[in-house]
Design goal:
It contains one helix and four strands; from the N terminus they run H-E-E-E-E. It is an alpha+beta fold. It has a four-stranded antiparallel beta sheet, with no helix packed on it. Strand 1 and strand 2 form a beta hairpin.
Length: 96
């Protein structure tokens, strides 16, 4: 009596390579999808003024860019709001 069924080790090898191929395909598709999402969400960066008129003696600690203004937090804790052209339009001093 001859057994025409494939050997178990051959079947296991085929399944193993199918799993590896599927895993590689899913990883590649995931990376392409993440890249596509990041590039479509990042359409335009906010406008950055060429210069900011910081008050005398103020050193910036953090800068935040928005669509229509730039916010600078100084090392002293002051919050400075600038227009798109870089002119200061609001200054908030920290309270003690």
């Amino acid at each position: 009596m001859s057994d025409d069924s494939p050997r178990p080790d051959h079947t296991i090898r085929v399944v193993k390579w199918m799993v590896i191929a599927l895993t590689a395909t899913m990883i590649a598709l995931g990376m392409v999808l993440i890249f596509a999402i990041l590039t479509t969400l990042n359409d335009e960066a906010p406008a950055v003024p060429e210069t900011l008129d910081l008050p005398e003696g103020k050193t910036p600690a953090a800068v935040t860019l928005a669509e229509d203004l730039t916010v600078v937090v100084t090392k002293d804790g002051d919050i400075l709001f600038f227009d798109l052209d870089g002119t200061l339009f609001r200054h908030i001093e920290p309270t003690q």
